[in-house]
Amino acid sequence: MPTIETDEHKSLREAVAALGKRHGRTFDRETLWAEAAKLGYLGVNLPEAYGGGGGGIAELSIVLEELGAAGCPLLMMVVSPAICGTVIARFGTEAQKQEWLPALADGTRTMAFGITEPDAGSNSHRITTTAHRDGADWLLTGRKVFISGVDIADATLIVGRTEDSRTGRLKPCLFIVPRDAEGFTRRQIDMELQAAEKQFELTLDDVRLPAEALVGDEDAGLLQLFAGLNPERIMTAAFAIGMGRYALSQAITYARDRTVWNTPIGAHQAIAHPLAQAHIDLELARLMMQKAAHLYDAGDDVAAGEAANMAKYAAGEACVKAVDQAVHTLGGNGLTREFGLASLITAARVARIAPVSREMILNYVSHQTLGLPKSY
C-alpha cells in the first residue's frame, strides 16, 4: 500500500482544511453540511454514475479528518455517506441506488444507521429486532438505542434479523425505514455530551415495509453488515484523529505564546515532550487508518476488518491523550469556553467506546489475529 499521499489527496486535504478554517469551532452544522455537499466532499466516496466523486473511504476519511482538525467535524459523515452510502452502493438494487445515492452525495438527504440495542451491547448476534414476511411486505419489530441524527435523517438503515427458511436460524438483514413510517417512533436520550447530532432510542412496532425496503440479498448476512461497519471504524478513526489534531494545535499555539519567567512554556521539556508524544501517536494512528482505508477500497474486506479495528483503537487512544495533554498545557484556560477544549474531554471518550469498545477490539485482535481462544 502507498505510504505517501498522492498529489490528489494532498490537494483534497488542503481544500477541506481551508473550508474548515472558514467555519471554525463555532460552526453551524447545517451551513457547513450544505457547503461541503456543494463542493462535492460529502459524496466523494460514492460512484460517479450516481453523482458521487468516484473515490473511496480513503478520500472521505481525509475530508472528515481535516474538518475535525479545524474544530468542525461532521459526525453524520460517518453514518450517511460512509455506512449507508457504501452499503447501498455495494449491495442496493438499481432503484435504491437511483433514489438514495445522488441525494446522499449532494447532501439533500441523509440517512441514519441503527444497529445498537439496549440488551445486545457489543454482541450483534443477540440483536432481537426481527422482520417477518406478511404477504409481499415486511413487518419489522424491535428497539434500538444510541442512534445518531435520526431527527435530521430522512430514513434509517436498520439492522434486523430474518428467519432462514432452510435452517430456522435468524440472520442479519438491512432495511431502509423512512422517518415517517407508521409504528416507527423515537425518544431523544438526555446526554451530558453536547453535540449537534442528538442521540435517540428507537421503537419499531410492526413497522410495515415494502419488499424493496430490504437492501441487498436476504441471504448475504454478515457480508453486507460488515461492508458498513468497516467504513464506520475507519471514519471514527478519522473523527478522533481530527479532534486530537485540533486539541494539539490549540496547545501548541498556547505553549509558544504563553510566557512565564521570560520563557515560553513550550521551551520546557515537561510541556514539549508530552505534546511531541501526542503528535507521534496521532501520526501513527493515521498511518493505520490509511492502511485500513486502502485495504477496504481495494476490496479486501477481511484484511480491512483487522486494520479498521486497529485504526479505530489507536486513534481513540491517541485522541484521548492529545485532548488531555492539551487541557493540561493550558491549565485553567483549558477549561474555559474561549479555547473550546473542555467539551472535548467528554467527546474524546466517544472514540474509545463507540461504535465498538476498545476491549472488544482487543478481543477481535487476540482471537482473529493471534489465534488465542475465546472466553465467551
Describe the protein.
It is a single chain. The protein is of the alpha+beta class. The protein is built from 10 helices and 10 strands. It has helices at 7-23, 29-38, 57-69, 76-91, 94-106, 222-257, 269-297, 301-330, 342-353, 358-369, and strands at residues 111-114, 130-134, 137-148, 155-163, 170-178, 184-188, 199-209, 214-215, 259-260, 263-264. It is globular, with a radius of gyration of 21 Å. It starts with 6 loop residues before the first helix and ends in a 7-residue tail after the last helix.
Keywords summarizing the entry:
alpha+beta, 376 residues, 4-stranded antiparallel beta sheet, 10 strands
Which ranges are low-confidence, i.e. pLDDT below 50, for 5 or more consecutive residues?
A: none
The total count of helices amounts to 10
Helix content: 40-55%
Strand order of the largest sheet: 1-4-5-8
* Percent range for β-strand residues: 15-25%
Mean pLDDT: 93
Structural class: alpha+beta
The major pleated sheet works out as: 4 strands, mixed
Number of strands: 10
Radius of gyration: 21 Å
Distance between the termini: 35 Å
Give the overall silhouette: globular
Strand/helix succession: HHHHHEEEEEEEEHEEHHHH
Helices and strands, with pairings:
Elements: H1 7-23, H2 29-38, H3 57-69, H4 76-91, H5 94-106, E1 111-114, E2 130-134, E3 137-148, E4 155-163, E5 170-178, E6 184-188, E7 199-209, E8 214-215, H6 222-257, E9 259-260, E10 263-264, H7 269-297, H8 301-330, H9 342-353, H10 358-369
Parallel strand pairs: 1-4
Antiparallel strand pairs: 2-3, 3-7, 4-5, 5-8, 6-7, 9-10
Brief account:
The chain has 376 residues and is of the alpha+beta class.
